[in-house]
Amino acid sequence: MKLLLINPNRTQAVTDAVLAAARAAAHPGTELIAVTGRRGPAIIGSRAENAIAQHEVLELAAQHAGEVDAIVLGVSLDSALWPCRELLDIPVIGMTEAGLLVGATLAGRIGVLTYGARMAPLYRELVEQHGMTARLAGVEAIDVTPEETFATPGVVQARVLEGIDRLVRCDGAEAVLLAGAAMASMAAPLQPRAPVPLLDGVACAVALAQVRHRLALPAARAGSLAPILGREVTDVSAPLAALFAGGHAR
Amino acid sequence: MKLLLINPNRTQAVTDAVLAAARAAAHPGTELIAVTGRRGPAIIGSRAENAIAQHEVLELAAQHAGEVDAIVLGVSLDSALWPCRELLDIPVIGMTEAGLLVGATLAGRIGVLTYGARMAPLYRELVEQHGMTARLAGVEAIDVTPEETFATPGVVQARVLEGIDRLVRCDGAEAVLLAGAAMASMAAPLQPRAPVPLLDGVACAVALAQVRHRLALPAARAGSLAPILGREVTDVSAPLAALFAGGHAR
Amino acid sequence: MKLLLINPNRTQAVTDAVLAAARAAAHPGTELIAVTGRRGPAIIGSRAENAIAQHEVLELAAQHAGEVDAIVLGVSLDSALWPCRELLDIPVIGMTEAGLLVGATLAGRIGVLTYGARMAPLYRELVEQHGMTARLAGVEAIDVTPEETFATPGVVQARVLEGIDRLVRCDGAEAVLLAGAAMASMAAPLQPRAPVPLLDGVACAVALAQVRHRLALPAARAGSLAPILGREVTDVSAPLAALFAGGHAR
Amino acid sequence: MKLLLINPNRTQAVTDAVLAAARAAAHPGTELIAVTGRRGPAIIGSRAENAIAQHEVLELAAQHAGEVDAIVLGVSLDSALWPCRELLDIPVIGMTEAGLLVGATLAGRIGVLTYGARMAPLYRELVEQHGMTARLAGVEAIDVTPEETFATPGVVQARVLEGIDRLVRCDGAEAVLLAGAAMASMAAPLQPRAPVPLLDGVACAVALAQVRHRLALPAARAGSLAPILGREVTDVSAPLAALFAGGHAR
Amino acid sequence: MKLLLINPNRTQAVTDAVLAAARAAAHPGTELIAVTGRRGPAIIGSRAENAIAQHEVLELAAQHAGEVDAIVLGVSLDSALWPCRELLDIPVIGMTEAGLLVGATLAGRIGVLTYGARMAPLYRELVEQHGMTARLAGVEAIDVTPEETFATPGVVQARVLEGIDRLVRCDGAEAVLLAGAAMASMAAPLQPRAPVPLLDGVACAVALAQVRHRLALPAARAGSLAPILGREVTDVSAPLAALFAGGHAR
Amino acid sequence: MKLLLINPNRTQAVTDAVLAAARAAAHPGTELIAVTGRRGPAIIGSRAENAIAQHEVLELAAQHAGEVDAIVLGVSLDSALWPCRELLDIPVIGMTEAGLLVGATLAGRIGVLTYGARMAPLYRELVEQHGMTARLAGVEAIDVTPEETFATPGVVQARVLEGIDRLVRCDGAEAVLLAGAAMASMAAPLQPRAPVPLLDGVACAVALAQVRHRLALPAARAGSLAPILGREVTDVSAPLAALFAGGHAR
């Protein structure tokens, strides 16, 4: 099976972390292709950057979809997840979506831990959009920038463990999702010191993408996912324009 | 007061309809500037086209924000509404948001009428994202394309009136929001034949933009709306890049 | 345009504060008529006082509706808001309703600040009745009586700022509605010292009343707002009895 | 035990029906006192009439509370239920509240049947205010006036049975609450022809009032139910004014 | 009237406490029969023990239903409540259900106090299953085992009062339900020292069972409560097997 | 990997269908062990039968857990799912849970199709307990018994397709979960004739069990999932008693 990992952030270190997490989770023999955003934000840290990044997700998806069996969005805001599902017949899975869905099989309520107070409302909104608020224990934000996590991982880890502890003690979390592509590499090393399971969205997303590939379910094609045909979208790449014109109906 | 109308669809007829509706609603003396998408979808008809259009909304907003007092998004999916609010200190108002908020002052529950069955779930999701689901009577979709509304308005009007009637009788709507920029011109002519108030999102949005301008409230700058500073976003226009770098803190 | 401000509390100082806030918000040339409750509570501080006050709101509305274009209820529990809407064809807007609706255009979640712990549940219930709970960050109560706010404003202001700070830091409020007619005069002077926009319900309500007047939407007349005809209600004033008998169908 | 039945409608036939239903449900030896509204609506048929009636409920409650052990509000909109609870230390129970609470012990979801399409939204709102929406199957309205039910009971009964049937078949009701004081006498005769239990709000309220009396729980006196002291309310009867001044703290 | 109290825990002291609470609440002349689980958990302290206990509840109910007029489940997780309702035509009432329903007649929001942090999520889920989450102030857990409450009641009482205080001050509880059969005997002695009404689930359940008996409503027999006929269930007692085979249709 | 399939129904044909569906979904090389209920209901068709079956699920799980890597509950009410998770350290996955979680990766809202009108409320409650109501389009019941599906599959298939069609057209389902172990074999043959993806809970559960095994997440051990220690449960098998005594802490 061939799996495309899309990191729309223009930061190769994030892609590398996503790829490493994916490799650890994927079945042996899975071919992983990781692509990095060429345009847009260095690291998504706001709704506005996310809006720009969605365009790039669609471009990267359109360019590579024909070569792969499934796509994982290696970006924790699940940017352009449903737009991709409208356009493509192959499975597309988001990191945070996957963390919540897998987490739902082992914990009553799931805590979400992220960097930066301004991101907390965005994750609450995302969980709400996924219709999973009933399973959310709470969102806790740690005040370090995603960039710092690559520079001083030791200090950051202590802060992350404190955040996990608050989610468990105060909010009743029975599992914690480490949200933010920059945290992708932390779940495994911190797990032994954490009182609850730590969910790595990349690993969960890769696993669900492989489930979807194996189950071979057709793409949904009713309601909001009915085939897209004859839409004229300009100033996008030829592959993306072709999808809007009806390419998924192949 | 100067008001910018952004229609990210690449269809001048939509911009013209939006501008006409805005003119009818704005205070005399309001200067209206209407801009049309240069890139992206002809008419937004899916989440994927909406994702592309959000980028264009941000570009048009960044380019013109310095010249105006407030912005109205002339696109019924309220594309890039909160991203604009993160980046700009001036009021930004969405059509559907405005229709729901004004409608809430005259009806217990509001029906939403739109074109195309595949759009109904998108409006339900949008109302949910606005936190207004408790005020939603239902979403009804009419199977004509937005393009047809410009070609055969007579036939379309009869269908619209039937849809209004279903929302009132079956779903308990006490007002109906005509969603979709293409419907902007229909509320006024159909009102005499409708049993409930018909909400035109453009008129409502223009009115709320003028309210916000008059009230002179500062932009929210806490939580997810804290100042954006030092974000590096490439392949966007210079004005938009400047906003990401901290331009709103002027 | 002629706008009626109804303060059903029997406290002229509240009416004066409401009128001042209204004057600051209204378009120049707006004629403002402010009336004060003649019967019932001095200041509404419980559901029971609110029940009594609703009767007085209806009386004052019936008496003056014929002379004005719209009504603003200058009472933060939005007393008799929907009963007025059933009886009258002109726009009627509530203070807290308006604060929430305008606040929704600039903040993800809105905090509500009020006087007296026993009032907090009433505001939570009111927000719920408005169907806006999804946009509520929280309700914070300060333990001073409304009466004190007129006597020692300096001390009270410090307490109000602390309450605002708790709503922002602990509850994620991105704007704060100062609820209670007695707070009407505080939003403007405190705004420079507050980290988020402060919403004055009177100003918001006046602005929305002017929007509704300008948009000239018909009153909703379906479902629970269908015309009231032939209802016999005794021991009310002649104008109110006339409305129950079918006066709104004029 | 002495039980006060308050019917704030100025219609003796309603009081008579309420009293008969109460007598059938009360323990032998219960002393029942039924009072009828002297001022206000003949029959409550709108939110506006309900607002007026709340005042009369408080007056009647204040006048008679000292002589009885508990109060049942014989009005299906539970008019002034919580205001009474703020002011009085004895149990006060509402008809619709009671129907929902008793119904919750025998049916997963409860249907509500009422007269007049304009009342359906009011019952939905009431159930929501009671926090019982999760147990609501639906609200069905029959287009006869409450007055007709006293004139042509035979025809009305057939319509009621049809409404019950729709609630069971289409909405999944496992019990049906006959809402509206005018329906008080119908549950018993129709029960043999109905496929589910029919809930008579009066009987349920009387039963719960007797439960509350027997359990001898103190009135709640925290939060919104903290003692009311020193409130000056004018133009109300002396007993009601005394309650506002602190009478419940006796 | 004959009332069966089922305590599926294998702990006679719990049955004794339940019986004492029931006796204090029941009408004089009520015949109370209390039975104790013979198989399964000593005290239910997890979902798994509750699953086992449900079987025993059904056995005890089937064995004794023919001799009684109503059943109260003396187990605070309301174990097998709806299964009993499917099988039996007599009223069956749960302790926590009853505490919430009676509490709803005297408090806006109800706090739940229990033993053991691991039980808190179970009560939250139970309140949700009862559709009463809108009336829940919060769930507070005290870290003593149910067993300790019988050994050192003095120390435990102080902890319980602290928990009640937190629910009132922090969560806005206006009444507190003491959840857990082991707490059944505490409400009465602690009431004088508590700021809000303390709800004893057993007393509330006995009272509601007597209400249901008096109202003589038929059992619901639609939807999920339609008659059970011809079900073959093995390895259960003869009386229970008979109910599955259609015994309730007697 | 070794996977245990537990069918607590005493019907070997159901176990066979579950096993066949599992085999089709499992990775090659997966060892599948399917066990059938020895005690309790022939086919679960009510909450009461489900209560009995939960006991048997726990017995079968306790007996076989030591030999396997994960468990799938081959019963569409997800009987004893969380009790199993409390007791065991290996992954345990429910059919309906899995269908909803996998369905959430391909459809906005999921319809649930089942046999027998009395089961519809049970599935609504189950989806609610899973916290997935926001993703539920609706529940549709077909009036054939589960037993008939094995006897006359041709006729039943037509009815199933009609039910799918109603869920898609009327309720906006974008995927349909075929609920009920008896339907396990229908998804694959009907898929070509269905307009949306058909979810087979067994296949989804097997896939998620394999995901959980591969991700090697520790079991949650906080809150309601904290280790069970020293619980005395009698009249259960030795392996189950050992789990209650602390067996999962191995």
How are the SSEs placed, and which strands pair?
6 copies of one chain form a homohexamer.
Chain A: E1 2-7, H1 12-25, E2 31-36, E3 40-41, H2 47-64, E4 70-73, H3 81-87, E5 92-94, H4 95-103, E6 110-115, H5 120-129, E7 136-142, H6 146-151, H7 153-171, E8 175-178, H8 187-190, E9 198-200, H9 201-215, E10 233-234, H10 238-245
Parallel strand pairs in A: 1-2, 1-4, 4-5, 6-7, 6-8, 8-9
Explain the overall architecture.
Six copies of one chain form a homohexamer. Chain A has 250 residues and is of the alpha/beta class. Chain A folds into two domains: 141 residues, Rossmann fold (3-Layer(aba) Sandwich); 104 residues, 3-Layer(aba) Sandwich (Rossmann fold), CATH 3.40.50. Chain A contains ten helices and ten strands. In chain A, strands 2-1-4-5 form a four-stranded parallel beta sheet, with helices on both faces. In chain A, strands 7-6-8-9 form a four-stranded parallel beta sheet, sandwiched between helices. The relative contact order of chain A is 0.17. The mean pLDDT of chain A is 94. The interface between A and F is large, with 51 and 51 residues.
> CATH class of the largest domain in chain A, please?
Alpha Beta
User: Could you give the distance between the termini of chain A?
Assistant: 20 Å
Q: Give the helix/strand class of chain A.
A: alpha/beta
Reading the helices and strands of chain A in chain order gives EHEEHEHEHEHEHHEHEHEH
Order of strands, main sheet of chain A, comes to 2-1-4-5
Please tell me what the overall shape of chain A is. globular
What is the chains' assembly state? homohexamer
Radius of gyration of chain A: 18 Å
Biggest sheet features of chain A: 4 strands, parallel
Residue share in helix of chain A: 40-55%
Task: Tell me what the CATH architecture of the largest domain in chain A is.
Answer: 3-Layer(aba) Sandwich
CATH topology (fold) name of the largest domain in chain A: Rossmann fold
Total of DSSP H or I helical runs spanning 4+ residues of chain A:
10
Average of the residue pLDDT scores of chain A: 94
**Largest chain-chain contact?**
A-F, 51 and 51 residues
- How many distinct folded domains of chain A? 2
Strand content of chain A: 15-25%
What are the segments of chain A in which pLDDT stays under 50 over at least 5 consecutive residues? Answer: none
Kindly state the number of beta strands of chain A: 10
